[in-house]
Write a structure and sequence with these properties.
There is one protein chain. The longest helix is centred in the middle third of the chain and has 29 residues. The strands form 2 sheets. The protein has a 4-stranded antiparallel beta sheet with strand order 1-2-3-4. A 3-stranded antiparallel beta sheet has the order 5-6-7. Helix 2 packs antiparallel against helix 3 and helix 6 packs antiparallel against helix 7. By secondary structure, the protein is an alpha+beta fold. A hairpin with a 2-residue loop joins strand 2 and strand 3. Helix content is 49%, strand content 20%. The protein is elongated.
Amino acid sequence: MAYLDQLLGRGEQILYIARQHLFVLIANILAELSLIALLVAAGVTSNWAFKDNLTPIVGSLTPSSLILLMCVSISIIVMISGFIDYLRWNTEQYVITDRRVIQVRGIINKRVIDSSLEKINDVELRQSLIGRMMNFGTVEILTASDDGVNVMDRIEDPLEFKKAMLDAKHNHERGYGYLDPQNYPAAQPRASAPGEIQGMLEELAMLRERGILSPEEFESKKRELLSRI
């Protein structure tokens, strides 16, 4: 059983899964390969510079051999770091379910951050010029919890992620859950008191101001409620 499956509650459904953009992994690996190239160049240069100095300075190692050994050792460490970067990229996930947003981090020691959909107050999306070109960005979720802000850094397709999250919140607040609201039987209209209609209109206006309802959805619901009077 995958680790993510163990985090889900009974009946909880996954709606969307994202991870950091592949560009992030490639950039890290290219930086590490560049460092390895510099170390190899330093080793070759030192071997040529000290080729005539055969006096051992540490045990039986000459200056050129010592520098070459150091360069090779650091290169191996950098290669291991690149492999760890890949494992971290592969295991880090940002998941939207019908109840919450889950951030899973860590290769061996796992760290899981949950943000309940009903506690999400605002969502901030940041994309640089390169981010728009490569389709990645940073999404910040402002919640009512003690942590306050949950950050998804440089994730792939951040616009689609934000849309999926807001749709999940929209459905969750209306009790739709994972199912498409179109599958629910339409409620039979009934006559309502003017005071009740006014309260419902005020609630719809608040949802529109928070961006949960679009202006078109607000107007549609408004006409439906006014028709009950």
